[in-house]
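A sample follows:
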Amino acid sequence: MNKLFFSILILSLLSGCGKSAIYSEYRTLPQGWEAHKPISFKYEVSDTLQKHNLFILLRNNDDYPYSNIFLITKMNFPNDQVVVDTLEYEMANPEGEWLGKGASLKESKLWYKEGVTFPNKGIYTFEIEQADRSLGKVDGVENLKGISEVGFQIEKK
């Protein structure tokens, strides 16, 4: 009887500890992340009152050549409105150590938008595109190595 009680108690505690992720999905990039090829995620909204936090998820390995990353994001609303952002995130500290979690593959959970209320019901499309370029170069990196997966996550606030 005690084992059953403690098992139920532990399961209850574990289920209450996590964030309330309502959407989380990854796309694998086996050949690198090509420039001008955005990665898309679709999410259907039915609740226009709930606030959400939005995150970009990146998994990188030691082949990633930079200490930061530049991304262009688009949030496409069901009514054809589009919000475009250019973002920069640190990927390594000044000593060159990766900031993400994990051993050989680092996972970074990057803030995209906080406290978002979706104003319209329907399907929202989120596009993420890499916009890295080497120092002193005008043209961007055509095929960014070292980013093995790109993901998107939505959590209830």
Summary: Confidence is low (pLDDT under 50) at residues 2-17.
